[in-house]
Prior knowledge:
The structure holds 2 protein chains of 2 kinds. Chain A is globular, with a radius of gyration of 20 Å. Chain A has helices at residues 84-95, 98-103, 125-139, 145-173, 179-199, 206-212, 217-228, 232-250, 255-261, 267-278, 282-289; strands at residues 2-6, 12-27, 30-35, 40-44, 47-51, 55-59, 63-82, 120-122. Chain A is α+β, with helices and mostly antiparallel strands. In chain A, strands 1, 2, 3, 4, 5, 6, 7 and 8 form an 8-stranded antiparallel sheet that branches. Chain A has 3 domains: 1-173, Jelly Rolls; 177-229; 230-295, Homeodomain-like (Arc Repressor Mutant, subunit A, Orthogonal Bundle), CATH 1.10.10.60. Chain B is of the alpha+beta class. Chain B has 2 helices and 9 strands. Chain B has helices at residues 13-23, 74-83; strands spanning 2-9, 27-35, 38-44, 51-55, 66-70, 87-88, 93-95, 98-104, 110-116. In chain B, strands 1, 2, 3, 4, 5, 6, 7, 8 and 9 form a 9-stranded mixed sheet that branches. Chain A binds chain B through residues 54, 124-126, 129, 133, 144, 146-147, 150-151, 154, 157-158, 161, 242, 245-246, and chain B through 73, 75-76, 78-79, 92, 94, 98-99, 115, 117, 119, 121-122.
Amino acid sequence: xxxxxxxxxxxxxxxxxxxxxxxxxxxxxxxxxxxxxxxxxxxxxxxxxxxxxxxxxxxxxxxxxxxxxxxxxxxxxxxxxxxxxxxxxxxxxxxxxxxxxxxxxxxxxxxxxxxxxxxxxxxxxxxxxxxxxxxxxxxxxxxxxxxxxxxxxxxxxxxxxxxxxxxxxxxxxxxxxxxxxxxxxxxxxxxxxxxxxxxxxxxxxxxxxxxxxxxxxxxxxxxxxxxxxxxxxxxxxxxxxxxxxxxxxxxxxxxxxxxxxxxxxxxxxxxxxxxxxxxxxxxxxxxxxxxxxxx
Amino acid sequence: xxxxxxxxxxxxxxxxxxxxxxxxxxxxxxxxxxxxxxxxxxxxxxxxxxxxxxxxxxxxxxxxxxxxxxxxxxxxxxxxxxxxxxxxxxxxxxxxxxxxxxxxxxxxxxxxxxxxxxxxxx
Lengths: 295, 122
């Protein structure tokens, strides 16, 4: 079951709750995709990416894409499509300072732009709160276009801040590289991250990860560590432990099942790492944070 | 909507902090960047019913104290209150503390509506 709300300003929000879905489409406008309690797979440009509740996907306009969901329980999904006019307005209001707006209301400073990285991003912070409110609004059949548009504007703002923060970190940590090289490294490291995000529950081979990221194994490990202050393995552990928390909170799966689902081989290793990171055991965490099990 | 923090402006933050902790037996509960570049020091009473935010310098609000109100959804509140004629002095904006929007009453008293967000949480 899918419900789409199309606003007068051309933006569109689609929400659905489904255990099974298969669809192909041409992404007409810039879009953001969220899965609130499960997984949705995206296939585009020879890439297979999976989004979970702690991540979201951005797609540029014109991308040909296929999606599927195949889950034992209904997954709540949301896709937000931004019209070109809305994005252009956002760029003007955010990136052009007031005096420029007065002098040149239709113009843009070409050095500043909303850069869309067609990849997976962490779904945390302001974006998570903002999209949560938007989801509540749409699910309550709100027709308040002004309020919905305000949330959409902030979603672009949240994305822009996220991007700027990442770029700032990359520029700081890889400052010894030339700008062009740094941008290319950033692009390839993004590939490595999206691969880990999407395949976190598999046994990830460094050779495959490096090959997907178009880098050598040594180069990948070195630059990943320099850029993000952690190795690809540490990043993988972080994703697995984060996702174990989601499963502990929102399902009744036994610990062994959780361990299997997040890709750990050994329950004792999982418990040890969980304790080290969160200073509590998985069972204690579940007892104090449990929410309703997905229907 | 509930009153979350009563703000106090002070030129001597160390002295004010000592007054709250030593004399009033309040507990320091951290700092919060409420406005860009303006960090408040927070104190709560032992029963957790009263909260103060000590602001180092009266920069932004002509020396007036502000009342910080909590809301679950700042943009919803902004939207609803605008419709009832409340005069806002800003659009909602994100800070390290959460989303904030500021408004005034007819007498010029300043209020901050704050949706607190645990931004580090998953």
